[in-house]
Amino acid sequence: MPLDQIEVIKQRRNMRLAKKKSAGRLSMDQMRKLINKKAGQEVSVDLADPNNPTTVKQWIPTGSRWLDSIICRGKLAGIPVGKVSEIAGLEASGKSYMAAQIAGNAQDMGIDVVYFDSESSLDFSFLEKAGCDPSKILYVQATSVEFVLETMEELLSSTDSQFLFIWDSLALTPSISDVEGDFNPQSSMAVKARILAKGMSKLTVPIANSQSTFLVLNQLKTNITRSPSETLTTPYVTPGGKAMIYSYSLRVWLTRPKAKASFVTDDKGYRIGNTVKVKLEKSRFGSQGRQCKFQILWGDQVGVADEESWFDAIQGSEHLDRAGAWYELKFEDGTSEKFQSARWIDKLQDDKFKARVLEIMDEEVVRKFDKRTGDATEFYEETA
């Protein structure tokens, strides 16, 4: 290489070094601007800013105060806005009824509800009973997995609206290859999982940035494996593949005993609901593994029978004594009130009694877990 060319290269290198040295150290704000300019959108944010997309700023109530109290450590929460969540359950465990109640609560918060239905079972009357305004729900038949994901992408990119997307259910929604192919399951093995993996990699960030919510309803299936120990430790699995599991910030699993005692009946013995056991299979909010139980109704009332479950939630509290069939609730002013469990709902009509019950629930379910006081098995062991 000629000497003059070598000299030119040296001069250019020295100029770059001098320019870099004169620029000095960039501030955090300058680096964020540099990154966002390169990305063409705001991908770098200040985590100290309460409006950053990683922080959950809103929670949609589930309809169960007990469940809302165990979802996030140290606070009353619900379905996290801006995240992807799952409600999975056995057949007839009440997933759709619970989702309808969540949809009604989202409408009360001014959130637009989009309901993808693969089961063609959404009923106008039961939505009304759950507290929804059906005329303001955007109902979409989930004809394929690809169609659901593409529709979500289109809506998120076309408007500034805040959405609650409910997918009922992932397990029964086919892929296009399922629809166009034959009935041989080998011909489309793992296709749905690969589609979902790509879809969630594209949608997770837009969902967070728009402060929308994606609620997936799924089925619990028996874990068929050759390992007996794995069957005991992991009795259930959900369709959709690993990508969905990694995408979820919250996984709520519903199971119910098969005994007749699990049914809720009216005065004439007609079945109007189920008692379900609820477990947080996954929670990114410091509460994974916590459990509770409540009734899900499908009679004249649809959704969670919330107040009935409060009685179970405060069992074991030092503020609630039991003597035979009688219970005694202690107030902070030193007074107390006796009652029988059959009159629990009637007693909650008294504002003072109800306020004290909620105080005890907050102490027993939220604050004790947050402060790590008491026996840990009180929070994790299965509720009968």
Structure in words:
The structure is a single chain. This protein has two domains: 59-305, Rossmann fold (3-Layer(aba) Sandwich); 314-384, no CATH class. β15 and β16 (326-330) form a beta hairpin. The strands form four sheets. Strands 3, 4, 5, 6, 7, 10, 11, 12, 13 and 14 form a ten-stranded mixed β-sheet that branches. The chain has a three-stranded antiparallel β-sheet with strand order 15-16-17, covered by helices on one side. The mean pLDDT is 88. 32% of the residues are buried. It contains 14 helices and 17 strands. It has 384 residues and is α/β, with parallel strands linked by helices. The longest helix has 21 residues, at 3-23. α6 packs parallel to α8.
Task: Write the SSE topology.
Layout: H1 3-23, H2 28-39, E1 59-60, H3 65-71, E2 79-80, E3 84-89, H4 95-108, E4 112-117, H5 124-129, E5 137-141, H6 145-158, E6 163-168, H7 176-180, H8 191-209, E7 213-219, E8 221-222, H9 228-233, E9 236-237, H10 242-247, E10 248-255, E11 263-265, E12 271-283, E13 291-298, E14 302-305, H11 306-313, E15 320-323, E16 326-330, E17 336-340, H12 344-347, H13 351-371, H14 377-380
Parallel strand pairs: 3-7, 3-10, 4-5, 4-6, 6-7
Antiparallel strand pairs: 1-2, 8-9, 10-12, 11-12, 12-13, 13-14, 15-16, 16-17
